[in-house]
Structure prediction request, 213 residues.
Amino acid sequence: MTSPDDITTTLLRQCLIETRMPADPTDVVMPMGSDDWPVRLKQQLRGALKPAGILIPVIERDTADLSLLLTQRSAGLKHHAGQVSFPGGGWEPHDPDIVATALRETHEEVGIAQNDVTVIGYMKPMPTITGYAVTPIVGVVSGDIELRLDHTEVEYSFEVPLRFLMDISNQKMVEREMDGRIATMAEYHYDGQRIWGATAFIIREFVKILKKE
Prediction:
């Protein structure tokens, strides 16, 4: 098991070396525990989904600690307004693959250019209740990069130490009621920020990969 104290970009690469970009970005893996979710929600997640790509930006600085860049989405957006998320969005016909989608959307939302991202790994697509199949792409970004936020989509950005997210004591399991049934989901609370929903699930799965669970 990988310790939070040992995590480096070299170790990240080793943990992700066998991962591959999904051949079908709509071939999703259902979240653990979703069998107990309401029928309506399960039908939504298993219905026709639109492919989307997000970037998990691992920020690397001269200091030992790595961090993940997250964004607070603007309140006026149609989907996931006001929520914490990774940069990314829906696939468009001119995108050659889902990696290109994640990198294009990241550049549009926070100003990180494709050439400033070193892609080191991939996660399996997951469904969202808004009808997307989201593929997380893991990329290393220099801490020297200057962000340029598109405030029509992103209210602000912030970073969370990877060490914090890998500490199991910082993972809170909460119960949410959906259609009269109770579902247990993960959340993280850091420096006044609440990370929940699909973003928390992605982080949880990412940490499992790093810990080789």
Summary: The CA atoms of residues 176 and 183 lie 5 Å apart. The first strand starts at residue 50 and ends at 60. The mean pLDDT is 87.
